[in-house]
Amino acid sequence: xxxxxxxxxxxxxxxxxxxxxxxxxxxxxxxxxxxxxxxxxxxxxxxxxxxxxxxxxxxxxxxxxxxxxxxxxxxxxxxxxxxxxxxxxxxxxxxxxxxxxxxxxxxxxxxxxxxxxxxxxxxxxxxxxxxxx
Length: 133
Prior knowledge:
The protein is α+β, with helices and mostly antiparallel strands. About 25% of the residues lie in helices and about 25% in strands.
């Protein structure tokens, strides 16, 4: 009903609304450990010239892009897709934890699919066994 539009002028505009998409992002320079906090993803990709999809993937997969690592300031918003993997050295009875599968399959010079197979079937490579954490 068009006649109701005139009532809009009576609504107070003193409220400040936070845009739900504007999550604060923490940028860490991995070479200098300098940290910059951005008010929104838009502010960050405008400054760095990185596309939004690439930025989201870097955050989601806990990746370092160029020399920067990004994460949401509110840790509950960080949905990390990278799976941590424990490498157990059977000779020395020690273990190392890797932040992503990519770190291990690159180190071992195998494919991601092969690493998944190794973990699933508890195979041993170079006297080491691998498991998800």
